[in-house]
Structures are given as structure tokens and as C-alpha cells.
Design goal:
homotetramer, alpha+beta, Butyryl-Coa Dehydrogenase, subunit A, domain 1, 3 domains, four-stranded antiparallel β-sheet, 10 strands, about 50% helix
Chain lengths: ~400, ~400, ~400, ~400
């Protein structure tokens, strides 16, 4: 057992850290300005392209992708880098082409795509020439139960016809998003986990109707393409657009979720670290009743509790990454569920405390905290709500 | 001891309940539409006027005001009515002219205003012909510590000259807001709690500059006039605009806070009740893995925990109201602090659970939950943060 | 609505308060000495008799019993008196003949007993000439599910034959305990809630075998008769010893539980108040690192949190009592479950904090805290564990 | 970074695991019997000697001691072994001569003892021919603040004279305990952390008076020598009995605490694992209302929450051990404080849940849970209470 990171991780982490402090954090006000200057524009703002160019020049590109197509890092090596990008969830992941949902989509295409599909979609995604969305969640059912999916994908000659309603297709409000990976049922009579398939639907296919943007606690997340509700109204794509095999949709979704969940947790820890750094700075500067916040018992207690939670959970995330690397995602299921449950809840507590440290500024847009809170809060729902994972993990433990 | 409400309370509660269900809740989508149709307009939307007319016709008007100027209710009688308005914080209080910050401002004017001040400002406020704001909080200091207030109110002949920067002046983004009650220091060298005074500043006085709207978790609260940052740049008002006495500002602010805090708590309980009602409905309609949510252990547990918290805290709020009525606000300080601490935190837990019941819909604008969460979260900061009250309450207990 | 206690309650509370401070609290060290002096003696210690005589002389006797047989108090009137007895759970309730399980047993005998049964058992219990136990819980089954009870009560001519194993028969280790009220199945084939009956079994009946005393966190509770495991080995009693009707056992047990649960909650609040009083005293006397505990943030926070929890829950207990008085125990079920869930958990948190205030003394017998903790902890299990009540309460709410 | 234990650790863990299951756990009922058979005897029971012989034969001896005098293991290697001994805190550590307070005392003697002191005391301790106690805590002061220590160690010619009152001298009730390491002030006028010294006081020295045994939640812990209150009444020892240097007491105490704290945490995790294993077994066997506990939502949730907490905190303990091995105890201070705060609190929550799973059996001596709870609860006080460490850790973080 050894808790020291390897040389490549250490080196990359330094580069990412420098990039974060020198380029990304100072670009946040620019992003805000560019968003304010173009109120109805959902395309990515110019600052994103600028940062991408710089990131690429530094070799900070596609770090999430384990194969030779990406940086070839293990999950364990990627973890501290992803954490650093969580300090600026709005800019750092997208700047380094490591942002969801493109990451998961690239993984799917890399693993299950045909050469033609890879050429059409994976290559431009790896180059960040286009963006993509993942259309699984539906408004009418509890999407944690895949058997309830209502969207139909019906074969009709050489085409698939997609009919259904999706929402929370993150990124899909942006015209930069060209590809929707859509999950639906090809065979509702098959065994429970073999009913679903995925098809690749170009966003400009006739019948694709972007209904509206959704908000998360009042935020439209326009900086990364928002969250769309989409109607698929007899949308036709050639059969070549099937991803993987018919009936393979559920298995592919599961394969996609493992890395997705751990990436979210890694970044969430970075968010917590930034919040804590902000709290520390504020506590040194402000006083009430003649005493600096940093010398008040409750502030010290909050900082200490937060520190302990972060340290313990980071180790659990790292161990999970190590297990995924050494025994595979399936055998790391207990750990993946554990961090999926524990990290966003802990980060929520930490953000709640830090908001309290900042007072009214904490809930406003003058600090990044409220937006962080909103984004993190939705992690407790996305990819399966806390209680589904708790029940599943508990069941597995009781079976042993 | 008797836990049954009196006849007048019962009767009024039924009227408010009917008004809420028949008029207010159905008007919420109308409000959303009217807001969407006039994106940059901060004036109150037409639906508010419609509801006001109906409320007034029902006798549901100025119920908060204890004197003959209002409905003449005790705090204990008002409590369940205020709770019901908390089901729709966006519309019910304003419809019944019981919305902060006007309520506190009317109380100040009724108690400390000269006849001329009452004629100019209290009368139109009681008629809801104008709105008002309260400018106390400042961006540069911890406003829970009144001694830190930076705004200066300097006498110059027959005028006061106000200089300073305020924020979180709720309502002041709206042109309907005509009056700002501004707290500042008239004598920085006086005893700590006699340095502050309040002056009445018409919003259109030269030198008043509305800098920008603030957001709460992404919400601009445009439906009730938003929250403004305001610069007072050598703003001159006649000395007649002094409210109360020079040096009386701190005491008046404290007097204003007692009722304000209990009103917030009453309404917060109504918010929690509505959330719980929504959760109950949802839990009956949705199923996961073949089992209705309403039959799943964790949902039952959440509902039970929420019910117990609401019941216990409602009683504490009612007892606080009773104490304010019978022994006065000062002697009810422990109880006022208790509910100020406990209610918003409990409501936050409840809203967090109900958001989880709703999944992704819970954080979106399709349900009122996320906006409720944001509003309630800010109660833990407004009028003194949790930890200031905890420390003060603990100190008082340890002294006994 | 009115939160002021009536005159009789106020007067009695003053008397009980005086009795507590003048007689009971000073008697605790005497009790400890008398216990130490007679290590294997399970009879009540002489100090108990002394206190009883004094309590009776003060009119503090059988206050729990609502009928003319007792003090004729309502639940609402009894509540603050019971709370005061909770300051010294070891001595105050027994001194005033208001101690479980005799209270519940007296209620059963008063309501369901025949005149002969009342003469034989109720009278001596009312006089505190004997003690009694209630034998319901069994080691082999989850006793919150009455359908699982294994003890058989078989009719054989003019006798009932009782066979089974019980435990947690509180008080039954003491030779002063003369009567066991035993719950068992007379008809395992009847409807689920009509299988059970209760019989009166004198403790010296042949076949009654006291197996062993049980401990609660290491405490044998010898001061109030301990907790016995008992085997009933073909124990024969005359049919006249049936309490109520055959098949009426479940309903009688439920009737018994309502008041029992609220009494426990009332006393638990008194326990919490005493703990808080001890913490306050300690915090004023001790210093660490040059600062009195009473001026340290965390101590203030604990005291404040505890105060708020006690105040809110006391009101819920009082309202529950009022409901039991006005609409009856059945209609007060939600409230009874609410306090059963919430009070012992809150008191546990409070005791845990106060133990921490006392450091090592807190877990020792030098302070009453650890024993209080143990007693209170078992309340979360007795009369149905937390989670059974949470599930039941949640289910009822979701049904509405 | 690598999360796999090394070969020696794996091998030793298997041996300890076998020893635990084959020898230790089956010996617990024997220990209970032997304790019951000799009610006033504080010497170690025969079963301990039997187990020691077996442990030694297996090479499971003095594993805690890093130097060649012990097993030569690193902290990281020892951690999983210590955890396993925590499954049976009453027997496993003592059987393997890895029980506090002897472990800390042996470390002190090994590091600071003279050859003569080592021959007299360390050798017999390493052989388990004698036991020892550590007398630091005092009843009259908050012992987390070393400056408050009241015991005086006055030099008088060739002797030191010790005067003072100590308590919580764990093990000292047993006649097997021969050595007391006593902390006191040699120079109250020196700098704050140079006032204290330690002397070796044979337990049979004239003037040493064992006042009484203390209890922890009703447990006297007679199986491992109890906890003594001791008066030192002009106790004279030769100056050769000084441990280390005059004024070096505080530093030695700190040096002793680092390993002590991590050992406690390691074992506490084992305690939690055993509790969880018991809960799992119980949940499979018991049913309520026709449903096995293992299929009830709340039980699954508890098990899942407990699993996550254990996994995260075990990693933090292991990393702390690794830091102690690689950068030293001082630089691992933040992590040592973190686990000291977090582990006992988490284990308390887990034990509380498991007690609830067991119902009334959980608080009794039929299950080890209540005794585990009592022991673990005292960890939140021993070696500095939670809040002292929280404040210290928070202060350090805010300083960075």
C-alpha cells in the first residue's frame, strides 16, 4: 500500500494547477461578461475556444480517455486532475475537453462505435469541433428504473423511427451540439434489460424538436449548453446509426455510468476544495463583534469538519479508481455506489456551511457558491438518486 | 392551557384557505406567463392587482398589522393565516398586503412616524398604492453587527445627507417601490447602539442610484421587486424625513425584527406544508421497480420525519406569538431566536427531501421546490445568521 | 389558544418542584449507599419508603391516574408534574407511586379488572404495598409485531395454563413485585388481533421461574426491581385471573401503551432539563486554556440547540396530552407516535452533548448522565422501535 | 499510489483472522463465566493466559511495537491487524500483548527509558509478566489542557515526592498492574510545556492509595483491570525513576498519544465491522410483519450508510499510518486529529443503528453491542475530546 501519486500524475497535476490558476479562474469574469453580452445565444462563448487552444498547447486534452485515443491515463492517474477541474466546473472541464456528457459519449463511441460512426462523430468530438448530448431521462417516468423508459425505437426497413419525449439532455440547447445519443426500447417484450437500444440522432434530423431549456435552481447553465427537453416525433435515422447491438442499450448505459459517476465525484471534491479555500480567505478578512471569523469557534469547527470529510472521501474515490483500473468497473460497483452516495451529500454540507460563512453574498452571483450548490445538488439525483443506490448497496451487503 | 384556535382565527383561516386554493394557486401559472411576456419589467404584474382586489373584497387585507389600522389581530391569531400565505410566497402575501418588507416598514411608520410621514407613506402603503424597501444591509460589513454600518447620515442645515452603499434592499428594483427606509450612522462617536438613525428617502431622490439586481440561487425574484444594490451618493432629504429620533435607529431596527422574524417562520411552515403535500401526491402517483413511492420505506420515513418537525415547530411558533402578545417582544426574545434558528433549518431539510422525491423535476422550475429552497435558504442569513442567534441564545441560557 | 397552565397545575408543579429539590435529589446519594450496602438485595431500599411517606403527606400520590381513584388530573395537568419526576427517574416516580410499569398495570386493572381483581391487586398497588410487572416482550420474536407472540395461555377446565418465555419484565427481579400481568395467545387461529389475552399471575405461582436479571448498558437497575427474564412452565391460574375478555389482549395492550408512551416522553424531557442544568453549572465552573467553558462557542451552541429542541418537543407533548384529554387516545395516535419518535432521540442528542461537556466524569457514575443515557436509549426500543413508528406514521400521512 | 496490502500484512492478517475466529471469539463466553465466578477479583482471568500462550505460539505478539523489540511492523502494516483485534476488544488485544495502556507505556520505556528502567519494566511488559497503567488524567481539571495538571513531583534529595489525585488510570485496579507512569509538575514556574515530568511509580509504593474503581456506562471493565482513581500521598521514588528528562513530560505525552490515537481508531473500525456483521446475521434471521429485516428499506439504508462510513474512514486511518511511517507523527498531526474526531463518532452512529436492529437484546449483555458502545463513547473523550481537536484542526487549516 502506498499513498504517494506516481510521477506522471504529480507532473500533470502541477500543469493543471497552473493552468487553473493562470488561465481558467481569471477567465470566469470574462465568461460572465460574454454571457451577459449575448443573452439569448446558446453557443459556447469565445473564451471557451481561447482556453481550449491553451489547454491543448499544454497537453491538457482528453485526459479522461484511457485508451491511446486519449491521454492513456488510468482512472487513478486521472482522478486528481479531474478534481482540479472541479474548481471551475463551468470552464475547466470544457477547456480540457473533459466535460460531461461528451466524455461519456466519447467513451461509448470509442468502445461500441463502428469505424464509420467513429469517423463521423468520435473524431470531431475528440477535436472539440462539435458537442453532443445523451438523451436517456424522460419526464414521465422514474428513469432510475430503466424498464420504464417510454421512448420507442422501431425498425422500419432500413431505418429506425424514434418516438418519445426526453428531458435533461444536457448540452442540447446549444447549436454546437450536433449529436444526440438516444436511448429507447426496440423490443418491449424482451427480457427486462434487453429491451433497450441506443441510436445516434443528428440534432438537425427532421422531427427532433427542442422544446425548452430547463433550469437548475434558477440557473439555465447556458455556459455549457443548458438542459433541453426534446420531443422525438417519428424521427428517422438509417439503421447504420444503431450504436452497438439491438438490446444492448441497458448494458451500454451501465458501462457509461461507472466512469461518469466517478468523474462527477472527483470534480465535486474540487468544488468543495475551492469553497473551502474561499471560506478560509473570507474568514481571515471579516470580523464580527470585533473578532475575526477565523477565530470564532463555529467557523473553525466547520472548516475542520469539512476538511475531514474531504480527506476521507477523496481516498475512497481514489481507491475506487484504483479498483476500476485493477479489477474492473463491475467489481468496483460497491465502491462506485459508495462514492456516488457519499460525495455529493458531503459536498452539499460543505457548500451549505461556506454559504453561511459568506452570508448574503453566498447565495448571490457574487460568489460561485450558490451555483456550485445547485450543480452539486443535482448530482444526488442524476445517474440514480441517493436512495436507489443506498438500497442497492445495502441489499448487496446483506446478501454477503 | 388550550390548543384550540379561537373562533375568529378559525373563520379567517377558512377564508384564507379558500382564497389560497380558489384564487392564488391557480394564479401562479398566470404570473409565470406574465413574467415571461415582459422580461425586463420589474413592476408588479397585472395578476397581483387582480388578486389584491379579490383579497380586499374578502376582508383579507393588512392582517399582519395589530392596531386598528390593520385587522386588529394578535400575533397568535395571525400566525395560522400567515402560514397559509407561505404556500405561495410569490403571490399570497403580496395579494393580501402582508408581504415583507412593506409589513415591517408599515409597522415602523405606524409606531414611529409623524402624522405627516404617515399621511405621505403609511396611507399609500396600507392601500398598496406604493411599495417600499428597507435599506440596512451593506456589502462591505457583517451586518449582523450593527456597529459596523458604514453608511453616514450627516445633518447639513435643514437636510440630512446620506452617503453609503446598501444591498439586499428587497423590492427596490421595482419602480412601484417609492420609499426607501435607510439606516445609517448619524453619530459614530455615540454609544454603540445610539449611533444609528433611520431616514425616509424617496426612491427618486437625486443621488439614489440603483446599481444592479442581486440573485438568490439564480432567481432574480422579479415577481416581488427583486433585491437591489443601491448607492447613496450625497442624497439629501429634509430633516422632517428622520424616522423617530436621532440615535434611535438601532432600537427601531430591533423592534422591527421581532415581528419580521416570526412572520418569516410562519410562512416558512406553510412552504413546508405545501412541499409535503406535493410529495404526498407525487408518492402516490409514481412507482419505481413496480412499487409506488408511497409504499417505499424511505419515503414514509421522510414524510414522517417532516410531519413531526413541522408539528413541533409550529407549536413553538404559536407559543412565541402568544408570548409576544402577552409579555411583549423583548421577553419573548429566547423564543423568537429559537424559531429563527430552528424553523428555516427544518424547512430546508424538508424541502431537500421533497426535491429528492421529485427527482430532476424537483430542481427545475416545473415544481416550486427549488425556488422555495432558495428563498428559505436565505432566511438562515437574513435578520442575523443562525450562528449569531445560536451563540446569543446559548449565552443567555448559560447566564441564568 | 392559550399556553398558560391552569392554577391547579401551577400549584402542584410548585409542590413537586419543592419535593424534588428538598427531598428527592438529596436522597440519591442515600440510595446509592443503601444499594452498595446490600449488593444482592433486589427489594426496594428503605429510602424509597421514606420518600413515599413524605410524598403522600404532600398529596403527591397516584397523580398519573385520571379517575377518582387517582388524583383526577387530566393528561395535560399531569404532564409538567411527570416531567419534574424525570429529573430523578430512579427515585421521584417511585416515591410518588407514578412509576412504570405499575402505572400502566394500575390503569389496566382500573379499566378492565373485576371488583375482585381490583380488591386483590389494584388496591395494594394504589397503596404501594406491592409492585407489579408486565410480561409481554419475548426473547425469540420481534415483539413490535404482536402476531408473533409465542407464549400460550391454554384453558384447562377452571384454569388457564401459561407456557412461554418472557424477558424485560421490568421490576420483576424484586421480591416486592407480587403480580405479573402476562400476555399470551389463547387462540392462535383467531383473527390476528384477537388471538391474545392477558392473565394475572402471582409471581409466586408454581412454574414461574425468574431466570436472570438483564442489564441495560451495564446497569442492572436494581433500584427499581431490574428487568427479569422469566420462564412460565405450565403455570396454572384460576380462570378468574383472566383480565378483561379472551381475545382482548391486543386491544388492552394498545390502550395501555398510549399513556405509557406519553409518560415516558414527559419524564424524558425532565431528564434532559436536569442534564442541561448540570451542563450549565459545569460550564460556569470549568475552564480550558484559560477560557470558561460557558464562553466557548461550541458549548453555547450545544446549550442553545438543546434548549430549542426541548421547548419545541415539550409543546408537542403537551398538545398530545391535550388531544388525549379532548378527542381521545385513538385520535391522538399521530401525535403519540410523533413524540414517541422524536423525544427520546432528542434527549439522546442532548445527553450525548452533556456527557461531552463533563468529559470522563460524564461516562462515570459520578454524574447521573451515563445512566440517564442508558435508560433513555432503551426508550427508542421499548413500546415499539423508532422505525416501526416512523413507518406507521409515514404510511398514515401518505394515505390522507 | 497502490491500495493493495503487502505480502507480510496479508499473511499476518490471515493468521490474526484465524486466531480471532478459532480462539478469541469462542473464548468470550469463557471470560464471562470466569468473571462471574470470581466477582471481586481484579486479576486477569485464566482464559487470558491461555490465549496469550496460543497467540505467542502463532507469532502474534507485540505486533504494535515498530522496533526490533516488537514485530518490526510499520504502522501501515499493523493497522489491519489492530483492526481485527477490535472485533474483541476485551480479549484480542490483551491476548496478543497489544492492549492499551501497556502499548503506550512500552513505547515510552523503549524510547525514553534507561537500560535499568527497561530491564525492570519493559522486559516484563514485553513478556506480559506484568501490566502497567498511565496516570495522567485528574478529576479536578480539564486534562486536555496540560497546563492545569495539579499533581506535584517535588525533588527531595535523591528522591522524587509525588502528591496528587489521578483517575481513569486504566488497568490499575488489577493487582497484575505493577507499574504506574505518573505525570505531574516538577516546575510549575517553567514555560507552559516544560513544567511536566513523568516518574515510574511501582504500584505497591507506600502512599499509593487505590481509591475506587470507576465505571463506564455501568461497566467496570474488570476484564482488563478497570479504571482506578488513585491518590498519591507523598509517594517517594528514587530519582532514577524519572522517565526521560525533567520538564520532558509534556513532549513525551504527546509522543505517546499519536500511536495511541491511531491504535484506538484501528480497533474501533474492527468493532464497527463486528457490529455490522452481527446486524447482517440478525437481519437475515428476524422478520417483522412477515418481512425479513434484511428486506426492509431502513435496514438496508443503515447497512449501506455504515459500510460507506467504514470504508472511507479506514482509508483515512491507513493513510495516516502511512504518513506516520513516511513523514513522522508530527507532520501527520492533521490526519491523526482527523481520525481521532471522525472514527469514534462514526462508530457510535453505527453501533447505535445496530443496537436498534437488535432491539432490547442490543442494550443487554446478550450482545456485545452496549459494551462496545460504552467503550467507543469514551474514545470521544479520552486523549482529548472531539471539540478540542476540531478547534485545533480548524485553526491549523485557517492559518494555511
Amino acid at each position: 500500500m502506498d499513498f504517494a501519486p506516481d510521477a506522471r500524475t504529480t507532473e500533470l497535476a502541477e500543469t493543471v494547477h497552473r493552468f487553473l490558476y493562470d488561465q481558467v479562474l481569471p477567465a470566469e469574469p470574462t465568461l460572465d461578461r460574454q454571457l451577459a453580452d449575448a443573452p439569448d445565444d446558446w453557443t459556447f462563448r469565445p473564451i471557451v475556444d481561447e482556453l481550449r487552444a491553451k489547454a491543448r498547447a499544454e497537453g491538457l486534452w482528453n485526459l479522461f480517455l484511457p485508451s491511446e485515443r486519449g491521454a492513456g491515463l488510468t482512472n487513478l492517474q486521472y482522478a486528481p486532475l479531474a478534481e482540479l477541474t472541479g474548481w471551475s466546473q463551468r470552464l475547466a472541464p470544457v477547456a480540457m475537453n473533459c466535460a460531461a456528457p461528451d466524455t461519456g459519449n466519447m467513451e461509448l463511441l470509442a468502445e461500441f462505435g463502428t469505424p464509420a460512426q467513429q469517423e463521423s462523430w468520435l473524431e470531431p468530438l475528440l477535436e472539440a469541433r462539435i458537442r453532443s448530448a445523451f438523451s436517456m431521462t424522460e419526464p414521465d417516468v422514474a428513469s432510475s428504473d430503466a424498464s420504464q423508459i417510454g421512448t420507442r425505437i422501431r425498425r422500419d426497413g432500413d431505418e429506425y423511427v424514434v418516438t418519445g419525449r426526453k428531458w435533461w439532455s444536457t448540452g442540447a440547447m446549444s447549436p454546437d451540439c450536433r449529436l444526440l445519443i438516444v436511448m429507447g426500447k426496440t423490443d418491449p417484450d424482451a427480457a427486462r434489460h434487453q429491451q433497450q437500444s441506443m441510436v445516434l440522432v443528428p440534432r438537425d434530423t427532421p422531427g427532433v424538436r427542442i422544446v425548452r431549456p430547463l433550469t437548475v435552481f434558477g440557473y439555465d447553465d447556458r455556459d455549457h449548453g443548458g438542459h433541453a427537453e426534446i420531443v422525438f416525433d417519428d424521427v428517422r435515422v438509417p439503421v447504420e446509426n444503431l450504436l452497438g447491438t439491438e438490446g444492448g442499450g441497458f448494458a451500454m448505459a451501465q458501462a457509461r455510468l461507472g466512469p461518469g459517476r466517478i468523474h462527477h465525484c472527483m470534480r465535486a471534491l474540487g468544488t468543495a476544495e475551492r469553497a473551502l479555500a474561499l471560506a478560509t480567505e473570507r474568514a481571515r478578512e471579516r470580523s464580527t463583534f470585533g473578532v475575526p471569523l477565523s477565530e470564532q469557534g463555529v467557523i473553525r469547527e466547520w472548516v475542520a469538519e469539512s476538511r475531514v470529510e474531504i480527506e476521507a472521501l477523496r481516498l475512497l474515490v481514489l481507491k475506487t479508481a484504483w479498483l476500476m483500473d485493477t479489477v474492473g468497473n463491475r467489481k468496483a460497483m460497491t465502491e462506485i455506489q459508495s462514492i456516488k452516495i457519499a460525495v455529493p451529500r458531503a459536498v452539499q454540507r460543505i457548500l451549505d456551511r461556506v454559504i453561511q460563512v459568506f452570508g448574503a453574498a453566498g447565495v448571490s452571483s457574487d460568489q460561485p457558491l450558490a451555483e456550485m450548490f445547485a450543480g452539486n445538488r443535482s448530482l444526488r439525483i442524476a445517474d440514480g438518486p441517493d436512495e436507489v443506490h443506498l438500497a442497492s448497496l445495502g441489499r448487496a451487503q446483506l446478501r454477503r
